[in-house]
Amino acid sequence: MRKYSKEFKDSTVQLIINENQKVTDVAQDLDLNPKTLYHWVTTYKKEHNIPTKNINFKNNNEKESESEELKRLRRENKLLKQERDILKKATAYFAKETL
């Protein structure tokens, strides 16, 4: 049984969530069991209060309240900050490799 770092799990899950990659494709690319990856995605969404079902599309009659919009935007902002931090770390890592 292999152990993976939290950073690896989070970046893999973000690839699925943000890039709309299929879990099965990512699992195959990374040589992971798809069930393991589904579990990571579910756990990540629970930890970050992300709805498990994709409910981004609403009827035109249904307006998002300001508080719902604020919550959604805060979650999105948090995710974007995490992505930025991961990219900063990756850039620093690869910059060290080239020196």
Oligomer: single chain
Residues in helices, as a percent range? 55-70%
Strand content: under 5%
The gross shape turns out to be: globular
Terminal Cα separation, in Å? 35 Å
Low-confidence stretches: 54-61
Please identify the structural class as seen in this structure.
mainly alpha
Overall tally of domains: 1
Report mean pLDDT, rounded to a whole number: 83
The main pleated sheet reads as:
none
Order of helices and strands: HHHH
Count of extended strands: 0
Quickly count the helices.
Answer: 4
- The value of Rg in angstroms is 16 Å
What do you see in this structure?
- This protein is mostly helical and 99 residues long.
- The protein has one domain.
- 70% of the residues lie in helices and 0% in strands.
- It has helices at 6-19, 23-30, 34-47, 66-98.
- Helix 1 packs across helix 3.
- The relative contact order is 0.11.
